[in-house]
Structure formats: structure tokens, C-alpha cells
Amino acid sequence: MPEAATQTYTRADEAFDCLQTAIVKGDLAPGEKIGEVELCSRFNLTRGPLREALGRLESRGLLVRRPHAGVKVVSVSADELLELYRIRETMEGLAARQAAERMTDEEVADLQATLDNHEKMIEQAQGQAYYQAEGDYDFHHRIATGSRNTKLAQMLLGDLYYMVRMYRYRLSTSSGRPHMALEEHRRIADAIAQRDGELAEFLMKRHINAARRNIETKIHNGSLTI
Amino acid sequence: MPEAATQTYTRADEAFDCLQTAIVKGDLAPGEKIGEVELCSRFNLTRGPLREALGRLESRGLLVRRPHAGVKVVSVSADELLELYRIRETMEGLAARQAAERMTDEEVADLQATLDNHEKMIEQAQGQAYYQAEGDYDFHHRIATGSRNTKLAQMLLGDLYYMVRMYRYRLSTSSGRPHMALEEHRRIADAIAQRDGELAEFLMKRHINAARRNIETKIHNGSLTI
DNA sequence: AGTCGATGGATTGTTGACAATATAATTCCT
DNA sequence: AGGAATTATATTGTCAACAATCCATCGACT
Fold it and tell me: Quick check: B96 contacting A, CB < 8 Å?
């Protein structure tokens, strides 16, 4: 549960965060039908705020609601997951370009320091997929906010990343190629540091494209079933 | 008010649609602080469903809420409006490419028939900006759904277009270049008909880029103040 | 006179009870 | 016995009253 970073933290916000993390972490499985009263007792909530949170989550595409019929967690097919990566490719390419043009020098330094940190963690705990996934999220998060494009950051952080993370947890495969991904992150950060927006965009698109194809082959191999 | 296309139309849906159109049409001005009870009496609603709708609208970025302090319509600066077009450029480029690969022949025929219709309307009522705006929306709508990319269509139709339309109504400038825009639409549709995804993407990006620059110059001229 | 602090009013957040509807189990008919 | 219509139940949608919080006005102090 996140802290009360916002001054006042309403019950609906609490419900929203609880449900979102529960869905992302897989505590609520995709396709699962969930009753309102059950959720209330589970998270110590009342139905009013809960319903408000359900509305928000439906609006973000994390669950679907049929009137009077109940609410169930969204289940995304393998094809749709790959489509998600196609969207990420274009949007994060734009984010990288704008980040190269607009990030402050401090932000760039932080970004590269983050990558140093990731490198240490990968070397220490080899193949610790969990940290790799979080590190990857951290990197992309910084670039999204660094783009100074409010709506773009909102769409990436508020919509796409939660869905991608949901499948990361379920598949627990992060990317499966930690060193490769780190190297790609490094190159993107360098391009941003050199304020080369065009190159940053190109590298970011290629990076996400590679991740997509990685998942695609795993699915075709049958080693990944969704 | 839309029809009951969905089998059951709940009050919260009604509230959501009412508020959304009110915001888009400018009946609720950006930056305006609106009280819940006032909205209830205005749309003949009760506070429960209204609050659920407010949550959804906040989630979509059409209004901002501060706990216990009230809700106000979002006010987007000129810079942010231009950023919106940058996002559209990449996302709709992708949509056009995928539409070229996936639209059925019937859909392509419908798309081109739509353009014929637009041409007639433009010739008949020269400079009738309203229809031009709606026609433009129709065109882009068809391509978004034709991409067969669920999330992409959802983000375009559910998030971006409403914001863009909001400013269209306020500025009532549609694009200001109906014949030019129609010609660009034609070329995009032709590329889709020829199943040339790469070209469709290129043309769509250029089309939206032109629209963005058109707005940009108008802003710099001072003929557009937001 | 200007600024800081306290109190009143209004508005939002929350709660529990009531009404409407979809799913299901049951009964009746073919 | 199988299927269709029907009733019953449980779940969702809706409502109106209660509690908590913020904003503005007013007053006191520096």
C-alpha cells in the first residue's frame, strides 16, 4: 500500500490502489468473477468507495463490468499482449525523443546512476528476475516522466505499464535477457545524454521491438501459455 | 444522449455521457469549479452515480479532483494541446499501418464512401466547419477501430479524441483547411486500400503533423488564444 | 496596517438500507 | 425425458441521511 503522499487519502483511492496491485500481482486472476461484497470484506471497505474504484479501473481497462451481472478481471490474449508492445514501441519512442530534448542534466545523471545500480544488482544476484523487472520499470518510468509530456506520461504510467506488469508477474519471465536489456538501456541513456533525440527514439523502438519478439518466440515455442 | 445500444444503461453511464459531452461541448468551461449538488440538479441525478462518473472522468483526465475541495474541469494549455497532437501522430500512424493490414474489404469500401460523402457536404455547405469537424472525427474513428488493436482503439477513442474535440468546439476552428484535409484523407484511404501499411503510416503522420503546425501558427499569430 | 490564527458554514466523503435486475433452480408441458 | 417458461434468490444499482474535511470570513495580535 502506497504512503499518504497525497495530503488526504480517501477510501476510494485506497480501494483503487488495493485492487490495482491485487490485479497486477495476480491475487485476482484474469477472468475471475468477483463479487462486490466479497471485495469489501477482503479489503475492509464499504461499497460506495469500492464502486467508485471499480469505475476507475474499468475506465483503465483492467476489468470489465456488465450491469447487474458482476465484474471480472480482464483477460488479455497473447495476441493482445503483443499488440500492447506495438503501442509501447511508438509511444515510448516518442517519450525517449522528447526526454532527450527536455530532461534536465540532473535527471540524466540520475538515469545513468540508476543503470549503474541495476548493473550491480544483476551481477550480485544473477538471474534474480524480480529485481530486473522492477529495474526495467524504473528506467522506463523515468523516461516517461522526463518527456515533459503530461498526457503521454499519464497514458504510459497509468494505462499501459500496469497491464504489462500484470503479465510480467503472471509469466514471471521479466525479459529473460538481463544483460542484453541493460546494454540497450545504456545506449538509450547515452543518446539522451548527448541530446540526440532521433537516436534515442530509434534505440527505444528497437529495444521494445526486441522484447516483443522475445515474448513472441517464447509463445510459439509453447514455453509461454496465456 | 446516446441510445441504449448497450442492453442496460445505468445511471452512472448516463451521468458519464452527460458530463463528457458537456465538457466536450464547452457547457462546462475548463477551469470551472463545479459542485456535486449543482450537477445533480442540472442532470437530474443523484450523488452516488454522479460520483462514480466523476471518478471515471478523472481517470480519463477530463477533470481533476482534490479531496474535500471539489472538482473542476481540466484546463489544458496551448503547449499541452500541441503535445496531444504529437501523441496522435505516433499512435494514429500505427493505427493506419495496422488498419491497412487488417481492415476488411467492406470496411475499406465504407471508408472511401465516407470520404465521398464528406466531399459532397463540403461542396454543398462551403466552410461549414461543424460538419467538417465531425467528418474528420468519423474518418479517424474508422481507422482506429479498423486497426483491430483493442487497446490502441480504446486509448484513441476513449482518451485522446475527447480532449481534441473539446478544443475543437472551443476554438471552433476544426482545421480551417477542409479541402486540403480531405485530399490527405483520400491518400491515406488509398494507401489502406492498396494494403500499403508503411505508406499509410507515413501519410497519417504527415497529416496530423500538418494539422499540428496549422494550430501552432495560429497560436503564434495570436488568432488563437487558449 | 498587515499577517496569523480561530471559528462557522458549506461541501465532500461515507455509510447503511431499499429497489431493480440477471442468474439459477424449479416446475410444467410436449 | 428433454426443453421452455417461471419463480426465487442473490447480487448489483440507487437513494437519502450522517460524519469528516476544507474554505472563507472574522477577529486578534505584531
Answer: no
Banded pLDDT at A5 (limits 50, 70, 90): very low
* pLDDT of amino acid B1: 36
Residues whose CB falls within 8 Å of the CB of residue B38, separated by 6 or more in sequence, listed in order: none
| B149 part of contact set with chain A, CB < 8 Å | yes
Letter string b/e over residues A169-208, b meaning 16 or more CB atoms within 10 A of that residue's CB: bbbebbbbebeebbebbbbbbbbbbeebbebbbbbbbebb
At A29, phi and psi to the nearest 5? -75, 150
pTM: 0.90
Low-confidence ranges of chain B (pLDDT < 50): 1-6
Which residue gives the smallest C-alpha to C1' distance to C12? B68
Cα angle A176-A196-A118, degrees, rounded to a multiple of 5: 30
Q: Please, are residues B99 and B225 in contact by the beta-carbon 8 Å criterion?
A: no
pLDDT tens, residue by residue, A135-165: 888 999 999 999 999 999 999 999 999 999 8
- pLDDT confidence of residue A4: 33
CA atom of A10 to C1′ atom of D30, Å: 39
A150 touches chain B (CB under 8 A): yes
Which of helix, strand or coil describes residue B71? strand
| Nucleotide nearest residue B37, measured CA to C1' | C11
Return the DSSP state at A28: S
Whether the CB of A50 is less than 7 Å away from nucleic strand C comes out as no
A positions 166-225 inside 8 Å of B (CB): none
Residue A151 and residue B87: Cβ atoms within 8 Å?
yes
Q: Residue with C-alpha cell 525517449? A: A96
Report how far residue A89's alpha carbon sits from residue A95's, in angstroms, rounded to the nearest whole number. Answer: 10
Q: Give contacts of B68 with chain A, Cβ < 8 Å.
A: 8
DSSP run (H or E) holding A122: helix A105-124
Nucleotides of C under 7 A from a protein CB: 11-17, 20-23
User: Given this model, what pLDDT does residue A3 score?
Assistant: 33
Q: Phi first, then psi: what are they for A142, rounded to 5°?
A: -60, -40
pLDDT at position B129? 63
pLDDT band of A196, cuts 50, 70, 90: very high
- Structure-block grid coordinates of residue A93: 519512442
What is the structure's pLDDT at A134? 79
pLDDT in the model for residue B130 = 62
Partner B contacted by A27 (CB < 8 A): no
Q: Is the pLDDT of residue A9 over 50?
A: yes
pLDDT digits (tens, 9 = 90+) for A21-46: 999 988 998 888 999 999 999 999 99
